[in-house]
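Q: what sequence does this backbone want?
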């Protein structure tokens, strides 16, 4: 009988990320912008990881190509954290989960994997779902992009960078896992810091605030949870087929949706639910396709 622990570990990681919007909003309300929060928290995570695995630093320097992974994962986190802080959580999560659709196009370009008819079907489902989510009921297709908010744009961009990160992880699978993980955390910290400095320089966001227990305790707590979530992901993903991992990780959408309704009192329109069903259907087809290949 197989142990259920890997599944529970993946569910824990999905729960942490599905609820992450809440502490980011608490920190934002206390004066810490999500860009600064990303840089600050991943600095703590990075210090903790280097203390636990000092050898990973030497490994990273042996693979300069990891800078691509650092940039993609960093921009992914910056975009996602900012989007869920200022936007509608369900809408952001759904747009972010266009990742499997982007992955088809990126794998075609970067890995030479020509899309199959099923992959093209997933693309069609995913982008049809986006139209339903983004297009107001009384608008034409020509006005699809006119109503885009900052959070919408960040969510789509974040999903694209998430897909790029996954494709790069496959391309760099010969590189030791701890080196890849350290590069990703370093990228999250550096991209968060660079984005925060650039945005504050032009007045788009406020500067780094004075230390305040209201946001400091939340930031430290979320940093610990992110480390725990990463450990849970590594534990579960190493013991399960990637197709199973992908299916279980879709539970993040459920955790985020339910929590946003209960805590933030957000509402789910019929169009959002229908569009979300198409987007998640595309993601589920991709996950099940990977699972069948591994059986």
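A:
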């Amino acid at each position: 009988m197989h142990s259920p622990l890997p599944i529970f570990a993946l569910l824990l990681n999905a729960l942490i990320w599905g609820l992450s919007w809440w502490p980011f909003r608490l920190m934002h309300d206390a004066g810490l912008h999500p860009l600064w929060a990303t840089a600050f928290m991943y600095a703590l995570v990075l210090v903790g990881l280097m203390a636990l695995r000092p050898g990973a630093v030497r490994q990273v320097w042996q693979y300069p190509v990891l800078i691509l992974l650092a940039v993609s994962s960093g921009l992914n986190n910056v975009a996602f954290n900012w989007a869920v802080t200022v936007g509608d959580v369900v809408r952001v999560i759904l747009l972010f989960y266009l990742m499997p659709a982007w992955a088809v196009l990126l794998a075609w370009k970067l890995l030479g994997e020509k899309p199959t008819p099923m992959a093209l079907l997933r693309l069609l489902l995913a982008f049809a779902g986006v139209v339903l989510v983004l297009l107001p009921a009384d608008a034409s297709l020509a006005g699809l992009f006119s109503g885009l908010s900052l959070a919408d744009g960040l969510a789509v961009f974040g999903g694209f960078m998430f897909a790029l990160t996954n494709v790069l992880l496959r391309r760099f699978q010969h590189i030791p896992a701890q080196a890849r993980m350290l590069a990703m955390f370093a990228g999250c910290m550096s991209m968060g810091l660079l984005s925060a400095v650039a945005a504050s320089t032009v007045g788009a966001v406020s500067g780094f605030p004075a230390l305040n227990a209201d946001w400091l305790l939340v930031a430290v707590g979320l940093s610990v949870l992110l480390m725990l979530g990463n450990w849970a992901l590594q534990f579960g993903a190493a013991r399960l087929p990637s197709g199973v991992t992908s299916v279980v990780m879709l539970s993040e959408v459920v955790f985020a949706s339910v929590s946003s309704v209960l805590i933030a009192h957000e509402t789910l329109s019929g169009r959002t639910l229908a569009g979300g069903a198409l987007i998640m259907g595309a993601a589920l087809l991709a996950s099940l396709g990977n699972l069948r290949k591994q059986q």
